[in-house]
Design goal:
Layout (H helix, E strand, L loop, with lengths): L3 H17 L3 H14 L3 E3 L12 E6 L3 E6 L10 E7 L4 E11 L4 E9 L12 E9 L8 E6 L33 E4 L9 H10 L6 E10 L4 E3 L5 E4 L2 H16 L8 E7 L16 H12 L4 H9 L2 E5 L2 E2 L22 E4 L9 H14 L4 E4 L10 H5 L6 E6 L1 E3 L6 E4 H16 L1
Parallel strand pairs: 1-2, 4-13, 4-14, 14-18, 15-19, 16-17
Antiparallel strand pairs: 2-3, 3-13, 5-6, 6-9, 7-8, 7-10, 11-12, 12-20, 16-18, 19-20
Helix pairs in contact: 1-9, 4-9, 7-9
């Protein structure tokens, strides 16, 4: 039974997760800390693995993808895997090398590159900051040290051009990513060099010498915390709800069901770079999940035959948020399928197989929701609108898994701040927990 108190607790925890996960690197670090606290053991892909029945483990790829699992309780790898996949990345801006550009009055602009497909207008005139990682020199050129960094205060903004200089701005205004979207960072005089200003800033924040930094991966983020809105707090608004709501739900379900004894191995796979096609070593297009499942199979004493049987017995939930019907634009939705906020997880279907869902996968997930006492809905693209794709079909290119594409409904997908339903947070966790208990 999902009570108002359950919803409040789930949403408060999601908001803490969102506020600490301001970029893909920090989302994985937040997941890592939660898993360690829950008794999961971190594994290195370079080491030999010795896995215990019912053991709790996770491994990280390149700091931005994480796969956690609870091994099946017996030596029966052919019983298969219950998998939930989601992604850690969100659309935004990455800082380019040598980014400092000095404008009139000594104002430093930063040269950035757009990552993924953000709604650019939503990034204007907001308090922004910098997060990511620094790659620091060591004695071994092949093993530099990685240091996570987050400037936990606003240091940037992208100022919009005043309407007085562009009277037609509200009639439509094409934006140049190279000109219009550059943030301002500081104002300096002739006594301060603009060169390496960003590196000096993040080095000071991380407590390292700037000359020790070989390179970095730095992104912008909106410093505004997640919060609830609505007359009764019905909604959650935050950056990165797509897809960190699903990351949080899958990890929460895995941790809370870890003590449940099952012959099936339960897996949460959080990939990076879904927003740019998944074709990276830490993306869903890599053999990362395939290799990990092979190693679990081997640790359980399984051979190739057992692995193939295990995959054939498995089911995957590809969890990536779905479009809720926008109250101002209902005509954008399919005429007969209108998923809405607050009515439960959304099963995503596409006739051209952009999603992995078929009748079998949809029926399985609907049954899971029914067992959990959770409503569910359907999303189908308006036939005049081309839809996107997500993790499910990419992963089935390597593993012929049964499965479903689904997500919690949300508004303003790819905005700097998105909106979801509070009760759907609890609904999704309940459905995922039921899946892991099967």
């Amino acid at each position: 039974m999902i009570t108002p108190q359950t919803v409040d607790s789930r949403v408060a925890d999601l908001m803490r997760f969102l506020d600490s996960s301001v970029c893909n690197l920090l989302a994985v670090e937040t997941a890592r800390r939660r898993l360690l606290k829950a008794g999961f053991e971190e594994l290195d892909m370079r080491d030999a693995w010795s896995l215990r029945p019912s053991g709790r483990y996770f491994t990280i790829k390149n700091g931005t993808a994480i796969v956690a699992f609870v091994v099946g309780s017996g030596q029966s790898p052919e019983r298969g895997y219950h998998i939930i996949a989601a992604h850690s990345d969100s659309p935004g801006f990455r800082i380019k090398p040598a980014p400092e550009m000095v404008a009139d009055g000594g104002i430093i602009r930063l040269n950035t590159e757009v990552y993924g497909g953000p709604i650019l207008y939503t990034w204007f005139d907001r308090p922004l900051s910098i997060a990511g990682r620094l790659i620091v020199r060591t004695d071994d050129p092949l093993s530099p040290r990685h240091i996570l960094v987050r400037i936990d205060r606003p240091v940037l903004t992208i100022p919009h051009l005043a309407i007085h200089y562009n009277r037609s701005v509200n009639d439509g205004n094409p934006l140049s990513r190279q000109k219009d979207m550059l943030p301002i960072l500081a104002q300096i005089d002739e006594t301060v060099s603009h060169r390496d200003y960003v590196m000096r800033l993040v080095a000071r924040e991380a407590g390292v010498a700037p000359e020790e930094i070989l390179d970095c991966d730095l992104l912008l983020y909106d410093t505004t915390p997640a919060c609830r809105v609505g007359a009764e707090g019905e909604f959650v608004t935050s950056g990165r709800i797509d897809d960190l709501e699903m990351v949080h739900a899958s990890l929460t379900a895995l941790v809370e069901t870890a003590d449940h004894s099952s012959a099936v191995t339960r897996v949460v796979a959080i990939f990076d770079n879904e927003e740019t096609g998944s074709a990276t070593k830490q993306g869903a297009g890599s053999p990362l999940l395939y290799n990990i499942l092979r190693r679990i199979n081997a640790a359980q004493g399984g051979d190739d035959e057992a692995f193939i049987r295990g995959v054939a017995s498995s089911f995957m939930v590809s969890a990536d948020n779905a479009h809720a019907t926008h109250p101002n634009y209902p005509e954008k939705q399919d005429p007969t399928n209108h998923p809405v906020l607050g009515r439960g997880p959304v099963i995503k279907i596409n006739a051209n197989c952009k999603y992995m869902t078929d009748g079998d996968g949809a029926a399985v997930f609907r049954s899971i929701c029914e067992r959990a006492g959770v409503p569910c809905q359907y999303f189908v693209n308006h036939s005049d609108v081309a839809g996107g794709s997500t993790l499910g079909n990419i992963l089935t290119g390597q593993l012929e898994l049964r499965g479903v594409d689904m997500g919690a409904p949300q508004l303003a997908m790819h905005s700097v701040r998105e909106t979801a339903s509070a009760v759907d947070v609890a609904y999704t966790i309940a459905a995922f927990s039921e899946f892991f208990m099967l």
